[in-house]
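Internal tracking record. Fields below are filled automatically when a chain is submitted to the structure queue. Please do not edit lines marked as system-generated. If the sequence contains nonstandard residues, flag them in the REMARKS field before resubmitting.
Queue: standard
Priority: normal
Entity type: single polypeptide chain
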Amino acid sequence: MPPKTKEEEQTKAVPIIIILGLGGLAAWLLRPKPIDPNKAILYGRVTNIVTQEGISNINVDCDGYTAKTDSNGEYRIINIPPGTYSVTFTDQYGRYDPATL
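SYSTEM-GENERATED OUTPUT FOLLOWS
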């Protein structure tokens, strides 16, 4: 195989740079948000009262600060300013009645 010219090498390098650039952009956009030490974190686990298994896809709303439970029923809301809040748990699939604390 004959050696590649500089033009051939540059042409093949461009897509790699674009792919790496898009990967870096995606990683930057999906990076974890920094936690403000002067604000609160609300976290917990939503479980079935009978089986104690975690319930996924439950919406957690802390007066506008929101999260959704993961496959283990766990949720986490960060950077909540100090104050008193109501927390409402709702099931988008209607499996469970809403609850407010």
